[in-house]
Amino acid sequence: MKLLTLNCHSWQEENQMEKIQHIARAIKEQAYDVIALQEVSQSIDAGIVTGNIKQNNFGLVLQQELVKLEVSDYELVWDFAHMGYDTYEEGLAILTRHPIKKTHSFFVSKSTDTDFWKTRKIVGVTVEVQGEEMSFYTCHLGWWSDEEEPAKYQMEQLLEKVEGTEPYFLMGDFNNSAHIKGEGYEYLTSTAGLHDTYLLASEKDSGVTVEGKIAGWDENKQDLRIDLILANSPASVASSKVVFNGQHREIVSDHYGVEVTVEI
Hints:
The chain is α+β, with helices and mostly antiparallel strands.
C-alpha cells in the first residue's frame, strides 16, 4: 500500500491551481491507496455541491483535476474543523480508492467552536483492503505548550476515539517535532506505543517536512519532522520518502508531504 500525507495550506499558495494540478499528476503516477490531507479549505460563500462540501473545496477541486487526468476511482471524505483566514472553512480530507466501510469525524480539542482557529477535528475512514478492514485518520493537532488547547489533551482524545478501529494509521501534521524530547512525538511513540513508519522503513531520507518559518512556527529556525504516519502495530514498511520538497517533486505547500510504502 502507498500512503500520502500532506498539509495543503490550501488557497494560501501562489499559483494555487498549478500546484493542485501538480498534486493530481503525482497521485495519478503513484496511485496512492490512501491520501490524508490537512488544511483543506473552502470559501464561506461558495455554493454547496453535496453535503457540506462547497464548489471550491480544495479536496473537491483536486478530485476534479484527477478526473481530467482520467483518474476517477478516488472517493473524497471531508469535514469542517474551524474557520481559517476569516473567509475560509478549513477542514481535513481523505481520498481513497478502497471501498469505504465507515467514515469517522470527531473533535479532539477542548473547544468545539468552529469560529475558534485552535478547534481541532479528526476525519477518518475504515476501508476494506484485501478482504480486511483497516482505518486511516487525517490529523492536524495543536502545539504541546499551548495553554488554551494543549496537544497532550488532544492526543489523549484521539487515542480514545480510534480505539476499536484497529489496525489503524494516524497520518498528518502533528505540530510536534520528532526531534524534541519529552513532548508530543515522544508521548505518541513512547507513552502511547504508536509506531513511526519513518523509523520502521527499510529505505528513508531525512524525513524533514518543514524548513524554517511557516504558519504556526513563526520563530522556527530549524528543520522539523512534524508530518508523520504512525501505526498502532509494527507494520512492514519498505520506504518512507519526503515529497513535494523541491527535490522529489515541486513544492506545493509550506509543508512537504510524506509518502510511505507499507507491505500488507
